[in-house]
Amino acid sequence: MINAPKGTKDILPKDSYKWQFIERTARETAAVYNADEIRTPTFEHTEVFQRGVGETTDIVNKEMYTFLDKGGRSITLKPEGTAGVARAFVENGMQSTALPVKMYYITQCFRYERPQAGRLREFHQFGVEFIGSFEPSTDAEVILLAKSFLDKLGIKDISLRINSIGCKKCRAGYQTALKNYLSEKRDGLCELCKERLGKNPMRVLDCKNKECASIMAGAPLITDYICDECRSHLEKTTKLLESAGVKFVIDPKIVRGLDYYTRTVFEFVSENIGAQGTVLGGGRYDGLISQFGGTEVPGIGFAAGLERLLLVMENTGVVIPEKRSVKIYFAPMGEKESERAFALAQTLRGLKIACDTDHMKRGIKSQFKYADKIGAEYVGVIGSDEYERGTVKIKNMADGSEREVGDEDIIKFLNGEI
Ligand code: ATP
Ligand code: MG
Residue whose CA is closest, atom 22 of ligand 1? Predict the structure, then answer.
């Protein structure tokens, strides 16, 4: 037997309705916010992620699936969605279209991480990118879209945490202060954070190591360093959220993983799935588009991990509606009856009615069992008598009632017209 690679998972037919529910909810939510779908390639030139995610991030440093293709090009499977969208935005000249451009995607992502609950090597993200506006109303709208998505999924007990990580101007001051503070305590940091200290000290805030976290507890806070413009931008954003009735906490410890985030960063965190509690994270990236040769075009977005959303839903007892899709299963009791059943099924499918019939030469009892298993609403028995009369004996699987119906009247019966 060959197993699926470590960190990957099959989504089986019995479970796919859950995924479809989340994806449908994502599309419907994006649509009411006037966002259109964008699909970018599964792999990009490695440089896209080096530029678009940033050289100092864990993703680029440790987690990418990178390989040389047969032409000797360095290719990387997408570890996240934003960089590809930014590349596509510039390549397709979208900065000269009507702004903001509101987009969403649902995509596979690949990261070489240690697999555990809510952490896989291939996973799925629903993401949103609104590109073209500096206005706090865009920040608020993106956060409200995220909140509305989570609400529609039935996810409760989730907290929204927001922060501003400042802009190019004011962040430098904070980074210096943080670096000074951390340099004094360097010996207590984990090996990785010692490295981070030199390259991008704000990454230490993200470290899950206990000792690093306790050192960070006494560190200077970005909130005390951001400039007036950044502060006012955050205040306007949170005011809009307040007036929309959304609860949040300002959390100066949130910095997020990308290098090009500016100002607003936010996370929705669940208490119900253990260590991997962040189900959705996002932020503003005013410096990203220009990394791809575009002009300075601001943007803001988020991404949610579908596996983690599902985990939260399962752990909090959210019941995902399972659609019973087979309207009628035809149960023939012989050779010629099977031919009739096959033809009836074909006719009904032509009229968009989902149906099925026997392919295993089963006896009538096990056909009923099978019909029950596939969730058929009705079973249409065709025995020799029904065959002679040109009828089907239709049993309602929910209440057990039976009725013999002429072949030509099956549709009317299923539509409740007779
Ligand atoms: P974490 O702190 O958990 O590593 P992250 O900061 O790396 O998350 P992002 O890059 O912001 O995560 O990705 C957005 C969302 O994608 C996360 O909030 C999470 O729901 C999901 N996600 C990230 N990495 C994985 C993974 N390896 N497996 C499953 N879902 C993931
Ligand atoms: Mg990560």
Answer: 305
pLDDT tens digits, residue range 193-204?
Answer: 898 888 888 888
How far away, in angstroms, is 353 Cα from ligand 1 center?
A: 40
> Is omega for the bond preceding 100 within 30 degrees of 0, making it cis?
yes
CA of 308 to the centre of ligand 1 (A): 9
Whether the CB-CB separation of 52 and 82 falls below 8 Å is answered with: yes
Domains for the chain: give ranges and CATH numbers. Answer: 16-167+226-315 (3.30.930.10), 328-414 (3.40.50.800)
What are the tens digits of pLDDT across the range 264-321? Answer: 999 999 987 777 789 999 999 999 999 999 789 999 999 999 999 999 999 999 999 8
CA 208 to ligand 1: nearest atom = 2
The angle, 0 to 180 degrees and rounded to 10, between the axes of the packed helices 228-243 and 136-153 is 40
- The answer to whether the beta carbons of residues 109 and 79 sit under 8 Å apart is yes
Give the residue, by CA position, lying nearest to ligand 1 atom 8: 278
